[in-house]
Amino acid sequence: MYKDLQFFNTASALARHASDRQHVIARNIAHADTPGYAAQDIPDFADAWRPAGSSTVALKATRPGHDPAVARVAQLDLAPREVSGDASPNGNTVSIETEMVKSSLVRQQHDLALAAYRGGLDLLRSALGRR
């Protein structure tokens, strides 16, 4: 019943987006010393999310056994991130400080999604007369 409510779909999509973005940030941090690696990012949630029924493309895993989150990230529109400073001498554009700030923002986004989802469930329980 509750899965058909748009509110829960939005909260769930926000949590998935935060997870996908955290994977990209972790990949950037893992490649912080890789010569020539350009820091990547995915679009913000407001730009990337489309409600069900719109022209969305179904995501697929690259092969069985893959982590669905990793497969989702592989299918996203990753783009090199604009860097405010210069690249390191080896051409790497990853800034650990920037990645840590983005990681903190993603955690806040994920916490917001969980709080919204929990609030919606509490509202449904109240409407049904349960605490």
Order of helices and strands: HEHHEH
Strand order of the largest sheet: 1-2
> How confident is the prediction overall: mean pLDDT?
78
| Backbone shape | elongated
Could you give the distance between the termini?
A: 18 Å
Low-confidence stretches: 55-59
Radius of gyration based on Cα positions? 18 Å
Output the number of helix runs: 4
Multimeric state of these chains?
single chain
Task: Provide a short characterization of the protein structure.
The protein is mainly alpha-helical and 131 residues long.
Description of the structure:
With 131 residues, the chain is mainly α. The chain has one domain (2-127). 53% of the residues lie in helices and 3% in strands. The chain has 4 helices and 2 strands. The chain has helices spanning 6-30, 45-48, 68-75, 96-127; strands at 40-41, 79-80. It has a two-stranded antiparallel sheet with strand order 1-2. It is elongated. The two termini are 18 Å apart. Residues 55-59 have low confidence and may be disordered.
Helix and strand topology:
Layout: H1 6-30, E1 40-41, H2 45-48, H3 68-75, E2 79-80, H4 96-127
Antiparallel strand pairs: 1-2
Helix pairs in contact: 1-3, 1-4
Give keywords.
two-stranded antiparallel sheet, 4 helices, 131 residues, mainly alpha
